[in-house]
């Protein structure tokens, strides 16, 4: 009998499979992320951890969890997990790839369309009772059909966005690790730039002041990847200066974004509360994959969706000290 700490309530019935397999589920049921101190205390007796992108899984946490045999992150991104620290301690890490590809690509396209046609601002005009009359010059947006879309990141989600762009008869430019359009050229040519890279040291502030300066003054930046891929301060300046035409963001740095944050006061910006995978069916499928990873880890089997450590991080122990006790 193993103990599984689950850091948030999940949609669907996946957690029932843990109980059916004879495991004890310790569930943080509150509608806020598990506070750090609580997380450190609750993992002490856990054999498996099913955690969220809002939980920081680092050497300190792993050392507080001597029995831990698997970390199942309820997300495709694993930037919240110190993969090298987990590997050093022999704890496999799993994620939830594939099942959220379409939902995330749909949301990227929804943001692109919403920004191109200023949907939030126009809807607010009606809601405010300020819609006087139809006007030939009112609420003018930008054409999506025929425009050029630059997709940064050629993985599953980027490819799914490219398929949607085909339906809108857009010209698609993509950066990939093996060829594609170089990022500077993509930024210079694109009417819309959509980000689909994981957050790693190499992609942190990939869209910085210099990258924003390369974009067209009318171009719209769409981010459904991770907030820190964009330099927030540089983005705010670019929006005020008119260096770019607008930004439509599902993810921000920081997250959550405080209501008084200067990004919200910048012109032509749409911010959503990190809802790329937020459909009932997708979040249910993510829970099934996370549970698959937990069950495999507890059985001592390879995780069906195991995250491999990037070569540059493998073998490096980022924390000073902390020796993992031998497995019992
Ligand atoms: C969500 O952002 C995810 O990585 O799954
Ligand atoms: C990740 O890129 C995914 O599509 O699941």
Kindly describe this structure.
It is a single chain. The chain has 328 residues and is of the alpha/beta class. The chain folds into two domains: 130 residues, NAD(P)-binding Rossmann-like Domain (Rossmann fold); 171 residues, NAD(P)-binding Rossmann-like Domain (Rossmann fold, 3-Layer(aba) Sandwich), CATH 3.40.50.720. The protein is built from eleven helices and eleven strands. The protein has a six-stranded parallel sheet, sandwiched between helices. Strands 2-1-3-4-5 form a five-stranded parallel sheet. Helix 5 packs across helix 7. It is elongated and about 70 Å long. The two termini are 14 Å apart. The C terminus is likely disordered. The site of one glyoxylic acid (GLV) has 7 residues, from loops.
């Amino acid at each position: 009998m193993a103990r599984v700490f689950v850091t948030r309530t999940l949609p669907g019935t996946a957690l029932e499979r843990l109980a059916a397999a004879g495991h004890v589920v310790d569930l943080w049921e509150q509608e806020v992320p598990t506070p750090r101190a609580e997380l450190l205390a609750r993992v002490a007796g856990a054999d498996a951890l099913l955690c969220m992108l809002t939980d920081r899984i680092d050497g300190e946490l792993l050392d507080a969890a001597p029995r831990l045999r698997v970390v199942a992150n309820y997300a495709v991104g694993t930037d919240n997990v110190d993969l090298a620290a987990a590997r050093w301690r022999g704890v496999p890490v799993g994620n939830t790839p594939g099942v959220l590809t379409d939902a995330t690509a749909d949301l990227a396209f929804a943001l692109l369309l919403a920004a191109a046609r200023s949907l939030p601002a126009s809807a607010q005009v009606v809601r405010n009772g300020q819609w006087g009359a139809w006007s030939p010059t009112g609420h003018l947006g930008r054409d999506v059909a025929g425009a050029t879309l630059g997709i940064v990141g050629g993985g599953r989600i980027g490819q799914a966005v490219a398929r949607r762009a085909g339906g809108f008869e857009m010209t698609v430019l993509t950066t990939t690790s093996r060829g594609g359009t170089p990022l500077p050229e993509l930024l210079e040519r694109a009417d819309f730039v959509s980000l689909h890279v994981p957050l790693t040291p190499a992609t942190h502030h990939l869209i910085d002041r210099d990258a924003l300066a390369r974009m067209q003054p009318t171009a719209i930046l769409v981010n459904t990847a991770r907030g820190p891929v964009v330099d927030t301060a540089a983005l705010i300046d670019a929006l005020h200066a008119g260096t770019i035409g607008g930004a439509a963001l599902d993810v921000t740095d920081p997250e959550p974004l405080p209501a008084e944050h200067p990004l919200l006061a910048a012109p032509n910006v749409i911010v959503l509360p990190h809802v790329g995978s937020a459909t009932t069916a997708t979040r249910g499928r993510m829970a099934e994959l996370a549970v698959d990873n937990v069950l495999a880890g507890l059985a001592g089997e390879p995780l069906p969706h195991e995250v491999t450590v990037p070569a540059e991080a493998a073998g490096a122990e980022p924390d000073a000290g902390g020796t993992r006790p031998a497995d019992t």
